[in-house]
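ESCALATION

Customer reports they have been waiting on this structure for their group meeting. Please prioritize. Original submission:
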Amino acid sequence: MNYAALKAQIKSWADELGFQQLGVADLDLSAHEPHVRAWLARKFHGEMGYLERNLEKRLHPDALEPFTCRIISARMDYLTDVADPQKVLEEPSLGYVSRYALGRDYHKVLRRRLARLGKRISEASADFDHQFRAFTDSAPVLEKALGEKAGLGWIGKHSLLLNREAGSWFFIGEIYTNIPLPVDETVSENHCGNCRACMTVCPTQAIIGPQQLDARRCISYLTIEHKTAIPEKLRPLIGNRIYGCDDCQIFCPWNRYAQTTKQPDFAPRHGLESPDLLTLFNWSESEFLKYTEGSAIRRVSYEQWQRNLAVALGNGPANPAVISALRSRRVSTSQLVREHIDWALAQLA
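Update from on-call: job pushed to the front of the queue and completed.
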């Protein structure tokens, strides 16, 4: 088999499937292992115990899928050309939802297309017993490290993958394969230079050093992964961010080169690009499930959603409608949400 020719075909097929870039890496993650282990040892992962479990499979891809000898990494832009993020953040009556979660759940979009790409590779190499498995943030996979090895970019000071032509507003996914494709050159140079924009603008100062994110302070972690009460000292810093946070991307100079997506799947749904906080807070659980169907927002429960909204309302203007809604909801909600409502009412008072 002509592996170089096959790789060229794979890149062409990936382009047809809507990916902006594709690269191939080997399995050696030894250069990243010390950083990962040290980060976990400092408990920066908070309640995300899944990052500690199956660590050997993250660090050694063939421990996850023994057939693997190469990893195909691909990226797909997701930024939409609507509702300037900064303007939403500056209007306290609106809620800010991380841009990646405005449209269809990226797990489904990317994984299905990567699976189609894997099947096409199998069809093109019929004489080869092709084995593959596609991933998108769905298994113990060290995605950013693999993306860097595959030449998709470098890991920036905010710990996200950065690309000189595309910034960081993109998803990444992988195909583990047993075909020994030629590997791409790793992006060896970190192009962040002396810039500290992401570290400076982080509302909760969660980026405590280059590539050192303390998730326990990160708003994305607090509003999504954290299941219990948000630490009181961090609540005022969350502002109107109700699901995730993009500040480190919004202010990153490399994102001046970010491209808007052409994928209709990532178009915002139900006005969540600049929603009214009070309207969202008044949603019933059935409305929440209806309006977030097929969305990554389903990663949080209705209780977490209400918790996050109570904090955002407490950080906003003290108008009678907001105070009335908080008091009304307080009567019939859980202890977790009630705690945050009481905090919000105290703030507004």
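Sent to customer with the following note: The radius of gyration is 21 Å.
Escalation resolved.
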